[in-house]
Amino acid sequence: MIPARRPGVLALIPGLTACVVVALAAVAVQALELRLFGRGWIDAIVLAILIGAAIRSVWTPPAALKPGVEFSARTLLEIAVVLLGASVSAATVMAIGPGLLAGTAVVVVLALVISYGIGRLLRLPHRMAVLIACGNAICGNSAIAAVAPVIDAEADDVSAAIAFTAVLGVAVVLLLPLLGEFLQMSDVRYGVLAGLTVYAVPQVLAATLPVGAVANQAGTLIKLVRVLMLGPVCLGLAILTAVRGREGEAVTAPRRGVAIHQLVPWFIIGFLLMMAARSMGLIPAAAVPVMADTAKILTGLSMAALGLSTDARAVARSGVRIASVVILSLLALLGLALALIYLLAVA
């Protein structure tokens, strides 16, 4: 088989241009908010998602836009995550505290068990319940993609789980700031809440950057702990799947291995390296705000791409039962997150 070639730079331009236009429209709307109301009720990052999704609901972008939109939604956002590592020092990690970091791991385990139980209670097949549980508890689509080959999941199951998780992930990014404001949470508490509940690492940026740097740092660190749980979870599932096979369950296809980059994505490693460089004084203080501003610009472009890629009609196609399991699982995760925050009296 001839490997698929990556799109060239010229192929990215149409989609990148579309994302720039949407992002600039979001900035313009925020400026209009400031002029009319004296404050920005909805941040430009969130507006970029809403404007992009509104466009996508009435217009299907042509194929020529796809490479640039996909590049913006994924690669630019991953670069933004790496750059934000420069804003986090060892002192920030120590401020979070070992209790909260350990509690995050406990929340992941409990969320896995509860979500799987909800799935089975609503009569989802074992593999589908596992996919949704991992996506909900760890890191959304990335976890689903990593776990699928471990448990021999069918392509249809993977597609259905990813379709709804992608749409719901956007909804969480949009609604979580409203919940934080309703509960009058401090920036640290809100950051922890976002880190514990938002599906993907890059989406934590969109949910926390409008609130502030402290919320962003806390959310990113907590989210990293969740992502790092993917390795142990995949190992455990591989063992359980092997045991189920030996006990007589039919295995439809040979289990495939999981690449290391699926367990620990490159941008997570980059974030940690940047954080280490900042802690060792290798990054000049004057460069930190420049890198943070660059990350925010890239995030805005990525959110525009995310909106242009979000097809709300995918929710209807994924089925009521799957939708119910994902929503109930997310609510359970939210409850666990709030319990941990208030139990540990996070500042």
Structural summary, described in words:
The protein has about 350 residues and is an all-alpha fold. The protein contains 16 helices and no strands. The model is unreliable at about 245-255 (pLDDT under 50).
Over the alpha carbons, how many angstroms does the gyration radius reach?
Answer: 20 Å
Question: Helical residue percent?
Answer: over 70%
How large is the count of helical segments? Answer: 16
General shape: globular
| Run of helices and strands | HHHHHHHHHHHHHHHH
Mean pLDDT score? 82
How is this fold's topology laid out?
Blueprint: H1 9-37, H2 44-58, H3 66-84, H4 90-96, H5 98-121, H6 126-147, H7 155-182, H8 187-197, H9 201-208, H10 213-228, H11 230-246, H12 260-263, H13 266-279, H14 287-309, H15 313-318, H16 320-343
